[in-house]
UniProtKB/TrEMBL annotation, chain A:
Residues 451-707 form the Cullin family profile domain. Signal peptide: none annotated. Belongs to the cullin family. This is Cullin-domain-containing protein. The keyword Ubl conjugation applies. SUPFAM superfamilies: Cullin homology domain, Cullin repeat-like.
UniProtKB/TrEMBL annotation, chain B:
Coiled coil: none annotated. Belongs to the SKP1 family. It is found in: Nucleus. PANTHER family: ELONGIN-C. Essential component of the SCF (SKP1-CUL1-F-box protein) E3 ubiquitin ligase complexes, which mediate the ubiquitination and subsequent proteasomal degradation of target proteins. Controls sulfur metabolite repression, probably by mediating the inactivation or degradation of the metR transcription factor. This is Elongin-C. GO terms for biological process: ubiquitin-dependent protein catabolic process. Keywords: Nucleus. Its main location: nucleus. InterPro entries: ELC1 (IPR039948), SKP1-like (IPR001232), SKP1/BTB/POZ_sf (IPR011333), Skp1_comp_POZ (IPR016073).
């Protein structure tokens, strides 16, 4: 560019009237314009003309003079034209209403007076603000060059500040005489605004936009002409007063709510207040205040008396939980979350409630249990007396009742769990802190109840045995999930393992449940508890599968042998590995009671079968020992009831063939009646026992199932009472008839039921033994891992 | 940034001291705070959409108008080519830029650079 030979032209002096470049003429132009602007006559002014006037003045280095002139012009204008109007607005009435809170003035009257005053302030402000903006525009060049260089506050800040100095900070003069201390117009503005806000809080309708405009006026004004951001009058004067007035208001309101309302009203009221205050910041005040006022409301309405409200009788948190008042709980959660991230207050009550409800379940259960022991006691007391029959029936009923109670306990616990899950989902946004607190409480009360392991297993047993047939996959899924949920809470998992093993054994041996569901459940347990926990269960499944193959192979084997046994017996066998199966099933329990192994005597046909199978079994597996556990098996017997002489009509008139499904013991007993010597019709209890060597308890059960329930009464008992006694005798019931071909004799031992006190002690004792072994093993393991300390052998 | 006020036209007329008239996109002129202030108040310029500058020659105003458009076209772009400034005009343009408040102290004017 510099290489270009062009000459730089000097600035041409514009042709202009000489005197327009002097200060005074220029100022005159501007002064007139200021007057016009204040009088709203600006439309006939040329901006360029005025701008150029101030431009010229500044170019001539007379900026300071213009600055001072404008300032004093504005001060004069204020004194002469504005202040008198403001003074008119301030009546004695207003002062007494706003500052003295004169009693007897109605809200309506206060509002009218207050709003009229604020409107006056607003219109003065609007005029002033508009004029100042226009003047600042005209004096743009002055602002840019002079005020910037001279480090003065801008002309705009200075002139706009006049409003603050001459109006807001103006003391009240004559009107203030009745007051003890000096008050300014600003005080009245504040008082009126706060009064209006409180009126709105009480339900009056006020002029919100008026408040909003006054607020924004206060936001536009600063403490000084330097206009430092955080010294806005709104922030320095109004907001603190607003907050402290709100604090007082809400403190009072909170006390009132505590006295007169319930927790539910309180929640809704608080929620409404919070929304209202946010809205107020948007519509009437400034969003700068949103957070601050929210924390005032939170502090006064929520934190201050939170515990009192939560503890309210009949509407507090306890009642909300008990009555599933989700909406209340949800509100409560959100309100409390605002003030306390850890939600301690909620946590404590929630946990307390879980514990209480959990213990209540246990209490209910105890009450159910109580009906059994007294009956037992009574039975023992007058066993010999006339109530003997009835008393004997009682324990059986009580056992069933107890089983029902166990299932009920689990059901109740699950229901409780569901209840709190729903609350957590619906009301607590699945808050993790609260969820884990609830989970902990559940685990606590479940483990405080010493039979929980047994009950959970019983519950699963009950569901798998009865419930799952005909249920959809989803329902099955739900049951499995519930089972796992409960399992998670249990602390005594080894106890559970023990019970589950026992119950699972019964289900498997009696084919009471669907194997794929059993396996699925165990698979989930493994996922939850690890391999070790389910090793025995899986061993049981494996035994079952191997046994199935074995039975089939044996069947093939027999068929190939072509053994023409007349009384062909189909053998289905379960070969069970001792360690995997519970001792009760394996007959080891009986061993301990009697001191000697009670080997029962099988009928010859069965005996032959056993030997044949054993031979077959040992062909591939030499050296193994098979023990026949008669107590765990079942048998299908085809039996023929001959025509009853003398009956020509009805079912008894012809020969009847039935298939009886009985326990192995039942089969052994029935076989005895096949081989009855001629002429002998009945066998006594002792005779049966002598011939079979079945343990007394088992025999009572077996005979009971064959001679008491009408549907399977293939034996007639003498006397025909409802209980089996060792003195009874039995005979073949020729009169027996049934509508169905297949009959199942109820096998009492296969019903899983709650253990009696003795049994439980026994289980616990055994569990403790196992634990002792585990602990011993652990000690040894640890000891081994520590290197032995060198032993110094001194010579 | 369409202004919601009753703007009758998208264009304004700028008149030089020697009577030359330039019709310029209103938005482009707003780069100058001076013109901005002129057009936002209740003054005659705002009413008529006509701004007269008695002390600025047509030659200089033409260049100023060119800058307005240059700015408007390139306001959101990076690495734009410099505007052609005849050396012999630069003093006058400097003065005019000062008058229009286009100086870098306030405005990112490229002319001064």
């Amino acid at each position: 560019m510099a290489s270009r030979p062009n000459r730089i032209r000097p600035i041409r002096r514009p042709v202009m009237n000489r005197d327009t470049t002097e200060f005074e003429p220029c100022w005159e132009i501007l002064r007139d314009a200021l007057t016009d602007i204040h009088n709203k006559n600006a439309s006939r002014l040329s901006f360029e003309h005025l701008y150029r006037a101030s431009y010229k003045i500044v170019l001539r280095k007379k900026g300071h003079l213009l600055y001072e002139r404008v300032k004093s012009f504005e001060e004069d204008w204020f004194r002469v034209h504005v202040l008198p109007n403001i003074a008119d607005l301030i009546s004695n009435n207003l002062v007494s209403i706003a500052l003295l809170q004169m009693p007897g003035s109605s809200a309506h009257e206060r509002r009218q007076t207050g709003e009229r005053f604020l409107r006056g302030i607003r219109s003065t402000w609007e005029d002033h603000n508009m004029s100042m903006n226009m003047i600042a525009d005209i004096l743009m060049y002055l602002e840019r060059i002079y005020t910037a260089e001279s480090k003065q506050p801008s002309i705009f800040a200075t002139t706009i500040g006049l409003f603050r100095d001459h109006i807001l900070r103006n003391s009240l003069g004559s009107a203030a005489e009745q007051l003890d201390q000096p008050f300014t117009i600003f005080d009245i503005v504040n008082a009126v605004m706060l009064d209006l806000i409180n009126m709105e809080r009480d339900g009056d309708i006020i002029d919100r936009s008026l408040l909003r405009q006054i607020s924004s006026m206060l936001e536009d004004l600063y403490e000084t002409d330097d206009e430092i951001e955080n010294t806005k009058l709104y922030l320095t004067v109004f907001e603190p007063r607003f907050l402290s007035a709100s604090e007082a208001f809400y403190r009072k309101e909170c006390e009132k709510l505590l006295r007169e309302a319930n927790a539910s009203t309180w929640l809704r009221h608080t929620q409404r207040r919070l929304v209202e205050e946010q809205e107020r910041c948007g519509t009437s005040l400034s969003i700068l205040t949103s957070d601050k006022i929210a924390s005032v409301v939170e502090k006064e309405l929520i934190s201050a008396r939170l515990d009192d409200f939560l503890a309210m009788e009949g509407s507090g948190m306890k009642s909300m939980i008990d009555n599933d008042r989700y909406e209340d709980l949800s509100l409560l959660y959100h309100l409390v979350s605002r003030i306390d991230k850890s939600k301690n207050a909620l946590k404590v009550i929630l946990q307390g409630r879980v514990m209480d409800l959990g213990l209540e379940i246990e209490q209910t259960l105890k009450n159910t249990d109580f009906s059994a022991p007294p009956a037992d006691a009574a039975a023992e007391a007058d066993d010999a007396g006339e109530g003997g029959d009835k008393a004997k029936a009682q324990p059986l009923g009580a056992a069933a009742q107890q089983t029902a109670a166990a299932v009920k306990w689990v059901d109740d616990v699950l229901q409780l769990k569901d209840k709190f899950d729903i609350i957590s989902t619906n009301c607590f946004d699945q808050d993790l802190v609260l969820q884990s607190a609830v989970t902990k409480s559940f685990a606590d009360f479940i483990n405080m109840f010493n039979r929980s392991s047994e009950f959970v297993s019983l519950f699963i047993d009950d569901n798998l045995k009865r419930g799952l047939k005909g249920k959809s996959d989803e329902e099955v899924e739900a049951v499995l999930n519930k089972a796992i949920v409960l399992l998670r809470y249990l602390a005594d998992r080894d106890m559970f393992e023990r019970y589950y093993q026992k119950h699972l054994a019964r289900r498997l041996l009696h084919n009471k449940s669907e194997i794929h569901i059993e396996k699925e459940l165990v698979r989930r347990m493994r996922a939850e508890m690890g391999n070790h926990f389910t090793a025995k269960f899986e061993g049981m499944f494996k035994d079952m599968e191997l046994s199935k193959d074995l039975s089939e192979n044996y069947r093939d084997h027999i068929r190939n042998l072509g053994d023409a046994d007349v009384k062909k017996i189909d053998l289905g066998i379960h070969v069970l590995t001792t360690n995997n199966w519970p001792p009760e099933v394996m007959g080891r329990g009986a061993l301990q009671e009697d001191g000697a192994k009670a080997e029962c005597i099988f009928p010859p046909a069965i005996k032959r079968l056993q030997e044949s199978f054993f031979k077959y079994y040992l062909k591939d597996r030499s050296g193994r020992v098979l023990t026949w556990v008669a107590s765990a098996g079942t048998a299908d017997i085809k039996c023929v009831f001959p025509k009853v002489p003398g009956k020509e009509t009805g079912p008894l008139s012809k020969e009847r063939r039935y298939e009886l499904n009985v326990s192995t013991y039942g089969m052994i007993v029935l076989m005895l009646f096949n081989d009855l010597p001629e002429g002998k019709q009945s066998l006594s209890f002792e005779e049966i026992q002598a011939k079979t060597n079945i343990p007394t308890q088992d025999l009572i059960r077996t005979l009971g199932s064959l001679s008491i329930p009408p549907k399977s009464r293939v034996l007639a008992k003498d006397p025909p009472s409802k209980n089996i006694k060792t003195s009874d005798s039995f005979s073949f019931n020729a009169q027996f008839a049934s509508k169905t071909i297949k009959i199942k004799a109820p096998v009492i031992s296969s019903t899983s039921k709650v253990e009696g006190d003795e049994e439980r002690k026994d289980t616990e004792r055994r569990n403790d033994q196992t634990r002792a072994h585990v602990i011993d093993a652990a000690i040894v393991r640890i000891m081994k891992s520590v290197p032995p300390s060198p032993v110094n052998i001194s010579p | 940034m369409a202004l919601a006020e009753d703007t009758p036209s998208k264009y304004v007329t700028l008149v030089s001291g020697d009577g030359l008239e330039f019709v310029v996109l209103r938005e482009a002129t707003l780069v100058s705070p001076t013109i901005k202030g002129m057009l936002r108040g209740p003054f005659t310029e705002a009413k008529t959409g006509r701004c007269t500058f008695p002390e600025i020659s047509g030659e200089v105003l033409e260049k100023i108008v060119e800058y307005f458009h240059y700015w408007y076209r390139n306001r959101d772009k990076e690495d734009v080519p410099d505007m052609e400034i005849p050396v012999e005009m630069c003093l006058e343009l400097l003065q005019a830029a000062d008058y229009f408040n286009l100086m870098p102290s306030r405005q990112e004017g490229r002319e001064a650079a």
